[in-house]
Design a protein that fits this description.
Strand content: over 45%
InterPro entries: Phage_SPP1_head-tail_adaptor (IPR008767), SSP1_head-tail_sf (IPR038666)
Low-confidence stretches: none
Shape: globular
Number of helices: 0
Pfam family, one: Phage_HCP
CATH topology: Thrombin, subunit H
Organism: Paracoccus liaowanqingii
Protein name: Head-tail adaptor protein
CATH architecture: Beta Barrel
Structural class: mainly beta
Number of strands: 6
Helix content: under 10%
């Protein structure tokens, strides 16, 4: 099996809830660091109806592995950022039996 070509620099972000001062909360995204990855588009579709249509693309994003519990290892619920593009991480799995790479199954939504 060929090694993944990790040439795309992605920011890894995690969400945090902060009090809004009125008894509720707001969600903010905090940058955790940079990772080098390979992006592979899997499928795409339109979701919604009428003026509410959005484009949804599923991606497999491959990157170097990090042990479970390491802050460099992405987790579901976090996201990758590539400039203005956002990729919500839905699942993380080992790329193959060698344990050197991870596959992050992510969803990109384009509201434009």
């Amino acid at each position: 099996m060929a090694l993944p070509d990790l040439t795309t620099r992605l920011g890894l972000e995690t969400s945090e809830r902060i009090a809004d001062g009125l008894g509720g909360h707001a969600t903010v995204w905090r940058h955790l660091g940079w990772l080098w990855a390979h992006l592979d588009a899997r499928s795409g579709r339109e979701q919604g109806t009428g003026a509410g249509l959005i484009s949804v693309v599923q991606w497999r994003i491959t990157l170097r592995a990090a042990p479970v519990g390491d802050p460099r290892r992405p987790r579901p619920g976090q996201r990758f950022r590539l400039g203005p593009r956002l990729f919500l991480i839905e699942a993380v799995a080992e790329h193959d039996g060698s344990g050197r790479f991870l596959d992050c199954f992510s969803r990109e939504e384009d509201l434009t």
